[in-house]
Amino acid sequence: MKPSPLPFNAPDFSKIKGEHYLPAIKAAIDEQRREIKAITDNRQKPTFANTILAYERSGRTLERVSNIFFCVAEAHKTPDIEQAETLIIPLLTDFENEVKFNQKFFQRIKYVYDNERTRLKGEDAKLLEEVYKGFTHAGALLPQAKMQRMQEINNELAKLQQEFGNMLPKAAGEATVWVDDAKELSGLGEADIAQCKKDAENRGSKAPYCIVITNTTQQPILASLDNRSLRERIYNASIHRTDGTGAFSTFPIVEKIARLRAEKAELMGFKDYASYSLDQTMAKNTANVYTFLRQLIAAYQPKAEAETKAIEQYARQTQGADFRLQPYDRFYYSAKMKKEQYSFSDDDVKPYFNLDSVLVNGIFYAAHRAYGLNFHERKDLPTYHSDMKVFDVLDANGKQVALFYCDYFRRPTKRGGAWMSAFLKQSRDRSQLPVIYNVCNYAKAPEGQPTLLTWDETTTMFHEFGHGLHGMLSDCNYNTLSGTAVARDFVEMPSQFNESFASIPEVFNNYARHYKTGEAMPEDLKSKMLGSLNFQSAYALGENLAATCLDMAWHCLSSSQIPTADKAKDFETSALREVGLLSTQIPPRYSTSYFNHVWGGGYAAGYYSYLWSEVLAVNIADYFAAHGALNRSVGDAFRAKVLSRGNTLDLMSAFSSFTGLQAPDAKGLLKARGL
Question: Domain containing 26: what range?
Answer without folding.
Answer: 7-141
